[in-house]
Design brief:
By secondary structure, the chain is an alpha/beta fold. The protein has helices at residues 23-28, 30-39, 54-57, 75-86, 101-105, 123-131, 151-165, 187-201, 214-223, 237-244, 256-263, 277-280, 297-300, 316-322, and strands at residues 14-18, 44-49, 65-68, 92-95, 109-110, 171-175, 204-207, 229-230, 249-253, 268-272, 287-291, 323-324, 333-334. It has 14 helices and 13 strands.
Length: 338
């Protein structure tokens, strides 16, 4: 247990939490939601999120409300939206975007604009540091409640296991997509790795991704000799979360599924290229990343007109060399962590 809060908890009845926009960034803020819910159990917790992140939070019974802010809307609609928000009369605003919203709604307490930053701190830690400008958490590892998985989504995952994976069979979730093509490990290497997992380790591969990842996953499946399960465009993020909880682990690029698995504390192996894993890498207890960008001209000189070569520098043998699937519990682990 940490030191007491800087504010009087009994005075806090309504909290507004302002999260980020992209899905992976939203998930990175979930630990702050968990702390707020645990430390202020009597307070109604409301969240401001962009349209992309709404499906992750909507319908969560632990939240009193979700306010969607679309930065593309007209200033007149934004003003009307702010007026409605002001009527809520929030006591505390935790703003991870450094917006003008806290000033406009005149909350009693708010996070500071000038939160201390560290060049060596993961973004999850940076968000927690921001919270500490107004409230010192009483619990370091509260129960996870920011991501609520409805029964129907758990049932979806259970059907996939029963009908497509096989009850009792070990499987890993593989997410070969990424928002930026420069963050994608080569498709043919994913195919080779997945065949190795299936043939050498009797591990079923379950592909995860959005509709936009179907072509990538289709190419990988075509290059494979072993059967796999393709959930691209078939599973929501909550359904994927339910499946991740049943898996041995996840093998991913720098993407939203990586942060989702990290939040759920699932073993994660991530391939990294131009993004710095010190800030955005996997953060579950059992996690590992591979990055070989020392010879990437684009990483060394970002303004240079050149293609990234960092992801292609990671070989299949590099990935095989760190994976350990011979564990007593059948889970995925990493040889460097043993």
């Amino acid at each position: 247990m940490m030191s007491l809060s800087k504010l009087n908890i009994s005075e806090i009845h309504k909290i507004l939490f302002i999260t980020l926009s992209n899905i992976g960034d939203v998930i990175l803020t979930f630990p702050v939601i968990d702390i707020l819910k645990k430390d202020f159990p009597q307070a109604g917790l409301f969240v401001v999120v962009g349209p992309k992140g709404e499906p992750l939070l909507k319908g969560n019974p632990y939240l009193a409300g979700v306010h969607v802010f679309d930065k593309r809307q007209s200033w007149l609609r934004s003003l009307a939206w702010l007026r409605e928000l002001r009527k809520e009369r929030f006591d505390l605003v935790v703003d991870l975007r450094n917006t003008a919203i806290p000033a406009f709604i005149a909350a009693r307490y708010r996070t500071s604009f000038r939160a201390p930053r560290s060049n060596n701190t993961h973004m999850r830690g940076q968000h927690l540091r921001k919270l500490k400008t107004v409230h010192i958490p009483r619990h370091e590892h509260p129960e996870r409640c920011a991501l609520f998985i409805p029964v129907r989504d758990e049932q979806f995952a259970d059907r996939i296991v029963e009908q497509e994976i096989g009850r009792g069979r070990r499987f890993v979730v593989v997410a070969p997509g990424a928002a930026d093509n420069s963050k994608r490990w080569p498709e043919e290497r994913f195919a080779t790795l997945c065949d190795w997992l299936a043939k050498e380790h009797a591990t079923k591969v379950v592909f995860a991704g959005s509709l936009g990842d179907q072509a990538t996953i289709g190419y990988i499946k075509k290059a494979m000799t072993q059967k796999s399960v393709d959930l691209s465009g078939r599973a929501s993020l909550r359904q994927l979360a339910a499946l991740l909880k049943m898996s041995a682990g996840a093998i991913v690029n720098d993407s939203a599924p990586m942060h989702l698995a990290s939040y759920l504390d699932i073993p994660v192996l991530a391939m990294f290229g131009p993004t710095d894993p010190a800030y955005y890498g996997p953060w579950s207890a059992k996690s590992y990343y591979l990055r070989k960008n020392a010879t990437c001209a684009k990483c060394s000189q970002p303004k240079r007109r050149a293609a990234h070569t960092c992801m292609s520098s990671i070989s299949v043998e590099d990935v095989m060399g760190v994976l350990n699937l011979d564990t007593p519990d059948g889970g995925m682990n990493f040889k460097q962590l043993l």
